[in-house]
């Protein structure tokens, strides 16, 4: 079961890093919103976009960026906690969040639930069986 825990730890590190990179991509929505609300676009266009659209896209981009970065950091912390055999509850919460991302997060979440619920793993964490 130690092999499964080390594999699970690495998978959480990798998935967390990919989620953080995806969060950085969300900053492109912020840039598009800033472009749509720019004075230059209003001067150059005969029919400028609605005034609210740029602000809406900027707000949406920042909210998605923050959510994805927190989610990625939780995965990285979960990977670290699995490697040092502590914080099992955090790993369960992170696995539940990962289940929202179909198909890779769902697979990782289910693998996390199955691995962390094993009797040998509970003993590794120093929990009663």
Q: Unreliable segments (pLDDT under 50, ≥5 consecutive)?
A: none
End-to-end distance:
15 Å
The percent of residues in helical segments reads: over 70%
Q: Nearest-angstrom radius of gyration?
A: 20 Å
Oligomer: single chain
Quickly count the domains. Answer: 1
Tell me, briefly, the overall form. rod-shaped
What's the average pLDDT?
93
**Which class best fits the helix and strand makeup?**
mainly alpha
Give descriptors for this structure:
129 residues, 0% strand, mainly alpha, rod-shaped, single chain, 80% helix
Verbal overview:
The protein is 80% helix and 0% strand. α1 (2-25) runs antiparallel to α4 (51-83), α1 packs antiparallel against α6 and α4 (51-83) crosses α5. The chain starts with a helix and ends in a 5-residue tail after the last helix. The chain has one domain (2-124). It is mainly alpha-helical. It has helices spanning 2-25, 27-36, 39-44, 51-83, 88-98, 104-116, 119-124. The protein is built from seven helices and no strands.
Helix/strand layout:
Elements: H1 2-25, H2 27-36, H3 39-44, H4 51-83, H5 88-98, H6 104-116, H7 119-124
Q: Nutshell version of this structure?
A:
The chain is mainly α. Helices cover about 80% and strands about 0% of the residues. Helix 1 packs antiparallel against helix 4, helix 1 (about 1-25) packs antiparallel against helix 6 (about 105-115) and helix 5 packs antiparallel against helix 6 (about 105-115).
């Amino acid at each position: 079961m130690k092999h499964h825990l080390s594999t699970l730890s690495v998978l959480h590190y990798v998935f967390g890093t990919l989620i953080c990179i995806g969060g950085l991509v969300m900053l492109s929505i912020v840039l598009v919103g800033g472009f749509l609300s720019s004075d230059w676009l209003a001067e150059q266009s005969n029919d400028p976009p609605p005034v609210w659209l740029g602000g809406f896209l900027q707000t949406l981009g920042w909210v998605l960026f923050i959510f994805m970065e927190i989610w990625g950091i939780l995965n990285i912390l979960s990977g670290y906690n699995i490697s040092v055999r502590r914080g099992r509850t955090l790993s369960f919460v992170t696995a539940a969040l990962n289940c929202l991302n179909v198909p890779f997060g769902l697979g990782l979440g289910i693998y996390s639930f199955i691995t962390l619920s094993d009797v040998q793993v509970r003993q590794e964490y120093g929990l009663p069986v």
